Amino acid sequence: MHELxxxxxxxxxxxxxxxxxxxxxxESVTVTIGALAGIEPSxxxxxxxxxxxxxxxxxxxxxxxxxxxxxxxxxxxxxSEVLLNHLLCHVCKSHDTSLISGDELVLASVAFxx
Amino acid sequence: MCNTxxxxxxxxxxxxxxxxxxxxxxxxxxxxxxxxxKNNNQAxxxxxxxxxxxxxxxxxxxxxxxxxxxxxxxxIKRLRDSFKIAVIEGDLETENDTQRIQAQGVPAYQITTGxxxxxxxxxxxxxxxxFSLNDLDLLFIxxxxxLVCPASFDLGHHRNxxxxxxxxxxxxxxxxxxxxxxxDLMLISKTDLLPYLDDFSTSNAKQNLQNLAxxxxxxxxxxxxxNGLDDWIAWLLSEIKTYTELLQTKKTQRPxxxxxxxxxHTSSVKPKFYPINxxxxxx
Lengths: 114, 283
Ligand SMILES: Nc1nc2c(ncn2[C@@H]2O[C@H](COP(=O)(O)OP(=O)(O)OP(=O)(O)O)[C@@H](O)[C@H]2O)c(=O)[nH]1
Ligand SMILES: [Mg+2]
Ligand SMILES: [Zn+2]
Ligand SMILES: [Zn+2]
Ligand SMILES: [Zn+2]
Known about the structure:
Helix content of chain A is about 25%, strand content about 35%.
């Protein structure tokens, strides 16, 4: 489980942004996590609620936007939302697809009071 | 994905970023920074070291005990007279694997610190100080036995090999899609045991890999009877050749799973969208 170390990096990024913007406190932190990113959102939430204490983000809410897995078919051009172990085109059933979304692991935004 | 060119904005997160509305007294700024950017930057740095020294680096991943070290022993026996090989061991608890590799007469360094579940780019960078990279042709990194975390961490290597031993079951690619999607080669190991198992089907395993839209080659291998050793060596040699050619044109090699993002960056296709539960009527 690497959610804790990942959370550490997340918090450091948030603190750096808060400092750059002279924030008094962070209101919320939004992260975008794809279903194929290999991260368990609930573990990230737990980790965040522990390590944010005594930082500028102590009262920040962690907002996790989950992103579904979507693929583009390289044969017929259709775009499908798929299960994470079935990355096939819904239209022509081809395996020849490319991932459009679903592997995101991104700090999307930080909201704060100045 | 990188953070400077905007390719972090995928169709998955673009609407969210634009939907941001200012609230009373609260300032919101978009960041779009990959949560793994620290690791990814270090990995790029590692890759630059490898490329400067022209060393092809292969990351071996699997569940514990799938035969990674046995594969390396067989590989070294076959190739040690023609290539200069070294191994970084991610066996965090014991020195057994390191000693097995050293017994084959090649340098091996064991990573002993860090979180016990995966290697990261910083740990690998520290290990590099124990080798003379310029004297090597081929570096193997035996990752921690774990089908979950190691797939998320770029180490700066060029190719991912994922082992699936026949005793684990042919459904593993479907159960661990993040890991098996990352495979540039799937090696089905311990095939000498197939006669004793009635429920492992190599064709099912291959199908489950294909279902991840992963067209990586599959090699069946046993370190006990050397089944598939020639195929594995042939794959390695062709990877060395490809890598050498890329270097000559000032390019590098990356695991395929990391190349994917670039496609959408440049793609101008306007695809139709088919939600997950929609009955499809092709037009
Ligand atoms: N029958 C059979 N046994 C094998 C084969 N390859 C490895 N083994 C056995 O499987 C066990 C684990 O092999 P290792 O090579 O140590 O596996 P590993 O993936 O390096 O293990 P960890 O580093 O602990 O994750 C050992 O007892 C090996 O003898 C094989 O091809 N056939
Ligand atoms: Mg081992
Ligand atoms: Zn881990
Ligand atoms: Zn299609
Ligand atoms: Zn360095």
